[in-house]
Every structure is written in C-alpha cells, then in structure tokens.
C-alpha cells in the first residue's frame, strides 16, 4: 500500500512539474515548449552545438519511441503521448509484435512510413531511432537485406564533380559511420550519419538511410556484419509479421 501511494505521488509530481509548460504552450508562442518534459522523460540530449537541433532531435526520438511518425513536429498526437508518458511514470512497454524474428540476436527494421529504425534482439525492442529515407525519385529499396560492410569516417565522392571529401569532416554528408547494405554490395546503399541535421525525419536522400550522428555511433558499436535489415513501408512490415502500432 505504501509503495502504491509513493508511486502515485511521484507520478503526480512529474506530471504537475511539467504541466505548466504544456498549458502555457497552448496560449503563447514558444519555440521549445516541451523541453522540460522531454528532459524528464530522458529524450533530450546535448549532442549538437545548436539548441534548436537538440530540441528537434528530442522530439524525433520521442516520436520513434512511441511509434509515431518521426517528422519533428510537436502536434496533437505528440502532446497527448507526452502527457501519457509522464502519467505512467516510466512504466512503458513498446507495443511492437514480431511473429517470427529472423534472429534471436540483433536485427533491424526500417519503417519507411514512419521513418523509424528499430533495433530488435529477437522479438524485443532494444532501441528506436529516427531516420531520413530516399525521396520519390531516388527511393530507398524495400526488401529483406543484410549488413555487409562497416566503416568509420567514410570518404564521400561527389557524384557530379567526382571530388573526394575526407571522412569525418563537416562537408562530408555521410557523417562519421557507414553501415553498407547488401543491395549494391555494401557500397551503393547504407545507413550513415549526416551533415544536415534538419534532414532527419524527411524523405530526402538518394536512397540511403540517414541517422543522427550520435545515434549511428551507438548503433555501429552494437551490430555486427551479417545483421538482418528489413526495409519496408508499414503495411509491408505487417505482411512480414512485424507490427509497430502507436501507443497513444
């Protein structure tokens, strides 16, 4: 009984602590109305020199964790999910359901509809990450693929000028890590970092999957070559037995 009361009091405290900023956001212009809530929930990270980018990244990460479309926009579904997550006080289980995982170890899905990369271990969610995918004219391929190459600080060759851009520099659009996929033998399509943080959450690339630089560093250190990578729209993943419904 004492534990139940204590848990209720803590939940109420967390909710009420963030409630003023949520209410205020409805009546005034505020460029970052959910900062405290996202910090409380553990999604706000300082991994960029610009606060606006860190705030948008926090929104994207929260959207992914709740299987909402990762677009960086703090809309009504986002606000509802924030309030619900504060209310449940961390007792959150991802609603994903996987009928037949390709491995009991690590493997990946990329939901093109929601722009979410999910790292699974067997049928359990390990972590979800926001991504950018290919635009209509240069779409990201759909299918069941595998990771065939890993590389740090990949060199980028400008397809128009053929200029070689050194890896790990601000001018390199691949960021600091490259995870090459089986279509194209690891060199044509890959999961990589970026030098354009506002592109994450968009359909904008030439077919590759872009991630936040700190996110791909984390992913790179975990998954080995040979990891299964399933890429498809939400309805395609469902046909493959992977359901990723939103919680709120």
Structure characterization notes:
The chain is α+β, with helices and mostly antiparallel strands. It has two domains: about 90 residues, no CATH class; about 150 residues, L,D-transpeptidase catalytic domain-like, CATH 2.40.440. About 30% of the residues lie in helices and about 25% in strands. It has an eight-stranded mixed barrel with strand order 2-3-4-11-9-8-5-12. Strands 1-13 form a two-stranded antiparallel ribbon. Helix 1 runs antiparallel to helix 4. The N terminus is likely disordered.
Calculate the mean pLDDT score and round it: 89
How many DSSP-defined strands?
Answer: 13
Radius of gyration: 19 Å
Please give the alpha-carbon distance between the first and last residues. 28 Å
Number of helices: 6
Proper CATH architecture of the largest domain: Beta Barrel
Helix coverage percent of residues? 25-40%
CATH class of the largest domain: Mainly Beta
The CATH topology of the largest domain is given as: L,D-transpeptidase catalytic domain-like
The largest sheet is: 8 strands, mixed, barrel
Strand content: 15-25%
Query: What is the H/E order?
Result: HHHHEEEEEEEEEEEHEHE
Features:
single chain, 248 residues, alpha+beta, L,D-transpeptidase catalytic domain-like, 2 domains, eight-stranded mixed beta barrel, two-stranded antiparallel ribbon, 6 helices, 13 strands, 30% helix, disordered N terminus
Question: TL;DR?
Answer:
With 248 residues, the protein is of the alpha+beta class. It has 2 domains: 2-88, no CATH class; 97-243, L,D-transpeptidase catalytic domain-like (Beta Barrel). 30% of the residues lie in helices and 24% in strands.
């Amino acid at each position: 009984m004492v534990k139940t009361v204590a848990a209720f009091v803590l939940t109420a405290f967390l909710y009420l602590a963030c409630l003023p900023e949520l209410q205020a956001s409805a009546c005034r212009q505020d460029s970052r109305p959910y900062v405290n809530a996202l910090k409380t929930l553990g999604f706000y990270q300082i991994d960029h020199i610009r606060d606006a980018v860190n705030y948008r990244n926090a929104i994207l990460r929260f959207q992914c964790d709740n299987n909402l479309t990762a677009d960086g926009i703090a809309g009504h579904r986002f606000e509802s999910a924030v309030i619900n997550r504060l209310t449940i006080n961390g007792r959150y289980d991802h609603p994903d359901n996987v009928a037949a995982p390709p491995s009991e170890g690590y493997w990946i899905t990329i939901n093109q509809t929601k722009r979410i990369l999910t790292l699974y271990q067997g049928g359990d969610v390990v972590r979800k990450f926001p991504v950018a995918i290919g635009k209509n004219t240069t779409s990201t391929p759909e299918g069941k693929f595998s990771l065939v190459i890993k590389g740090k600080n990949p060199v980028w060759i400008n397809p128009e000028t053929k200029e070689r851009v050194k890896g790990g520099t601000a001018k390199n659009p691949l960021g600091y890590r490259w995870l090459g996929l089986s279509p194209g033998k690891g060199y044509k399509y890959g999961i990589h970092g970026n030098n354009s943080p506002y592109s994450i959450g968009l359909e904008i690339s030439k077919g590759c999957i872009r991630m936040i630089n700190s996110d791909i560093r984390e992913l790179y250190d975990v998954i080995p070559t040979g990891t299964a990578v399933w890429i498809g729209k939400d309805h395609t993943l469902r046909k493959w037995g992977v359901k990723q419904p939103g919680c709120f």
